[in-house]
Design goal:
Blueprint (H helix, E strand, L loop, with lengths): L6 H7 L3 H8 L5 E3 L8 E5 L7 E2 L8 E3 L1 H7 L4 H5 L5 E5 L5 E5 L13 E5 L2 E2 L21 E6 L3 H4 L6 E6 L6 E9 L3 E11 L3 E12 L8 E14 L2 E15 L4 E2 L21 H4 L8 E16 L4 E17 L8 E20 L2 E20 L4 E3 L2 E3 L2 E22 L4 E18 L13 E2 L5 E2 L3 E2 L4 E17 L4 E12 L3 H5 L1 E2 L10 E13 L3 E18 L5 E19 L4 E14 L20 E12 L2 E10 L2 E2 L7 E2 L2 E13 L2 E8 L7 E7 L2 E6 L4 E9 L1
Parallel strand pairs: 7-10
Antiparallel strand pairs: 1-2, 2-3, 4-9, 5-6, 7-8, 9-10, 11-12, 11-43, 12-13, 13-14, 14-15, 15-17, 16-42, 17-18, 18-19, 19-20, 20-23, 21-22, 23-24, 24-28, 25-26, 27-30, 28-29, 29-31, 31-32, 32-33, 33-34, 34-35, 35-36, 36-39, 37-38, 39-40, 40-43, 41-42
Length: about 725
């Protein structure tokens, strides 16, 4: 068998966030302390700090979706599994597209990219300046060992883009044997996935594959998706090496919004009122953007080398490479332009761990990354002029950007008393962009000629292209926290932390005519949270209150105009409870209440200080009752609640919210055969998976009608 270090050794030696993440899937994460049937469960988590930590000693919130949760859900979309977490809501759009919220509104448009950081074994799936709103699609959530989620900022650990939250997928360690799963659903949906592995005394290797073919419940909305993963672990003496390769391919025909402004067109006709259009199931099955599509591929490679120098010192180095390519139609904008973007990165995460004495530890290091990216945006439609904006046929943007980041950091953990622990982290990120515009500068067409209005008079084009430039952003982020163990099972914790988001390259170089070059600053969020956490043999709970303020918020308003200097505030309460009622019956409850408000005035965008941020439901809830009548069978009923929310910054239009029921069941026929089934939207509720109001119309993605999914897993 592959050698494994005991938990106590790993806590000392796990000095790199990446190394910790790779080890986490190898090690047992829940152990019952001996000599007591009611002893606390020692839950080990890795995402919140730069080293593995027992959950009860963590100075901050964290949510953990276990392998048992992942297997039980058999997720089709990211929302299926992530919406089980407290304070998290992922809106499913179409195909593999989705928009997340983590202790935040559901952010959309250009400013949304980079509000959240998505990791695989501690490494970001995309470069910080090249984020994508649909970034969850790349992660293989269904075959993960665990998923850990930090709510709120974590830039002191991870740097740029860890503003509202972090999602870290931990991959499975190699084991002898494997499994194969086939899942079938409505609309000719088939999902095939499998894992195979082998391990010996000092190494292990495994591979996994997931293939999806889905016809889509809307017209012309089929897609195929392929995810591949390889992992090799090798241990020799004081050295450990872990190599991971991940690949992703998506070919999707996209169905866009159903807009109330299209009612009576060739696409659909409905008798429902504009605000209730989502209740018309016939209209929601239509695709008014039959030419929309998304083609996407990515590859990620990382190798972690960690070495113990002595009993109290160790270091790690993790070089990595990523390549990402995407082409899609911007069906959600009047131009319906085609965007093509790509970037590749090479980087290295380095860290040094020093256990100074029994009560004091330091982690220090420096991260490097270099990225080369490019983007073109091309309109096929003839020149148009509407809403005071001229959109020209042909190229809107064509540029290249070289980006580099250097980020030193330090973290200190001080066990002041047996009960009280303090944690402090500080990180400095120096980001540089070298931008090269490949077509005419300014607000002209690509060849330098003017756009025209409806009277054939020369006018500025909507799209503004800066001249070649070098831009730098220096950001410092800090976290200070404490954890006080009230007793063996309960801890009180609190933290003050910062998150930042250096402007994305699309924020900087895909401007609009009313914007000025150089006006965009790094987004900054300050957060204060206090919480109480309990972990025992039958009951696990966490309650947290938080207050956050954000400056330089970048978003697109209801008129399609970019706002670069917004301010918002976010306050709320989050509660999670997992309780074993009996040996066969368990209850899980996740609830969050949040107030998300604008803290500035901008009349032209409909923003008034004190207005609610659009697409920000105050209440979210997820309640699950699981019944396990035998070791071989399980049944779970899940209730998901989304509260009402406003659709525009002026708070003049709203969505009423919805409640959904999901039913899941599984039965194990033998040691190697398991059957399972899931009924989505058990009551066939008519709801909107996403709603907004823009360009004078309500726009909806209709929710999935009642759907039965069945599957089988064979292990070997």
């Amino acid at each position: 068998m592959l050698q494994r270090f005991p938990i106590s050794t790993i806590t000392m030696a796990c000095f790199s966030m990446v190394s910790c993440s790779l080890l986490a899937a190898t090690e047992q994460t829940e152990t019952v302390k001996p000599n007591s049937t009611d002893a606390a469960i020692e839950v080990i988590v890795v995402t919140g700090t730069l080293q593995q930590s027992e959950l009860l000693t963590l100075a901050g919130n964290i949510d953990r979706l276990s392998r048992e949760d992942i297997v039980s859900v058999s997720a089709v979309h990211p929302s299926d599994i992530l919406n089980r977490a407290t304070g998290v809501h992922v809106q499913t759009n179409n195909g593999m597209e989705s928009l997340p919220s983590v202790r935040s509104p559901v952010l959309t448009g250009p400013g949304a990219a980079g509000a959240f950081l998505f990791l695989e074994d501690g490494i970001a799936t995309r470069s910080a300046g090249f984020a994508n709103n649909n970034g969850l699609s790349e992660l293989n959530l269904t075959q993960a060992q665990e998923v850990e989620i930090i709510r709120g900022p974590a830039s002191a650990v991870y740097g740029s883009n860890a503003v509202h939250g972090v999602v870290n997928v931990l991959t499975k360690a190699p084991n002898n044997g494997g499994d194969i799963t086939l899942l079938a659903g409505p609309n000719e949906r088939y999902q095939l996935q499998g894992t195979v592995g082998s391990e010996s005394d000092n190494q292990g290797v495994s591979g996994n594959i997931q293939a999806i073919d889905d016809g889509g419940y809307r017209d012309d909305s089929d897609f195929t998706s392929l995810k591949l993963g390889l992992r090799h672990d090798y241990v020799t003496g004081d050295d450990q090496f872990k190599t991971r390769v991940s690949g992703f391919i998506l070919d999707q025909n996209t169905a866009g919004f159903i807009s109330s402004g299209d009612n009576g067109s060739d696409c659909y006709t409905s008798t429902y009122s504009e605000e209730n259009l989502y209740k018309d199931s016939n209209a929601m099955e239509k695709n008014c953007d039959s030419d929309a599509y998304r083609k996407w591929s990515s590859v990620r490679i990382a190798t972690s080398w960690q070495r113990e120098l002595s009993d109290d010192r160790s270091f790690s180095m993790t070089p990595y490479f990523r390549l990402n390519q995407m082409e899609f139609r911007q069906h959600y904008l009047p131009s319906k332009a085609i965007e093509e973007n790509s970037h590749y990165s090479v980087g290295m995460i380095n860290s040094y761990h020093w256990q100074v004495d029994q009560n004091f530890a330091l982690v220090m290091g420096i991260d490097f990354e270099w990225t080369e990216g490019e983007l073109t945006q091309t309109q096929e439609k003839p020149d148009t002029y509407s809403w005071g904006k001229a959109r020209q046929q042909g190229l809107h943007y064509d540029y290249k950007v070289d980006a580099s980041t250097i980020a030193p950091y330090i973290q200190a953990d001080w066990q002041l008393t047996e009960q009280l622990k303090f944690t402090g982290s500080m990180r400095f990120d120096a980001t540089k962009y070298r931008y090269d515009n490949l077509i005419a500068d300014g607000t002209t067409k690509a060849d330098g000629s003017s756009c025209v209005n409806n009277n054939d008079e020369p006018t500025e084009c909507l799209y503004k292209r800066p001249s070649d430039n070098n831009d730098s952003f220096d950001n410092t982020s800090t976290k200070l926290g404490f954890n006080y163990r009230l007793n063996n099972d309960i801890a009180f914790f609190g933290s003050w932390s910062q998150g930042f988001r250096a402007p994305q390259t699309t924020d900087m170089y895909r401007l609009q005519k009313q914007q000025f070059v150089g006006e965009i600053k790094s987004e900054q969020l300050d957060s204060l949270e206090l919480g109480l956490r309990g972990v025992s043999n039958k009951l696990t709970y966490e309650v947290v209150v938080y207050n956050m303020n954000k400056e330089n918020f970048f978003f697109r308003d209801a008129e399609g105009l970019n706002v670069t200097d917004g301010e918002t505030s976010h306050q709320g309460l989050e509660l999670s409870i997992n309780y074993e009622l009996t040996e066969q019956l368990s209850l899980a409850l996740n609830y969050s209440y949040g107030q998300h408000e604008y803290e500035f005035d901008r009349v032209s965008s409909g923003v008034v200080k004190g207005n609610k941020v659009d697409t920000a439901p105050e209440q979210l809830a997820n309640v699950r009752i699981a019944w396990q009548p035998s070791d071989n069978s399980k049944l779970e009923l899940e209730w998901l609640h989304m509260g009402s929310y406003y659709l525009d910054p002026a708070n003049e239009h709203s969505y009423a919210g919805h409640d959904l029921l999901q039913l899941r069941g599984s039965v194990t026929l033998s040691n190697n055969t398991r059957l399972f089934a899931r009924v989505e939207n058990l009551t066939d509720e008519r709801y909107a998976s996403r709603a907004d109001y823009a360009f004078g119309s309500y726009r909806f993605f209709g929710g999935q009608p009642r759907a039965l999914h069945v599957g089988a897993t064979i292990s070997f």
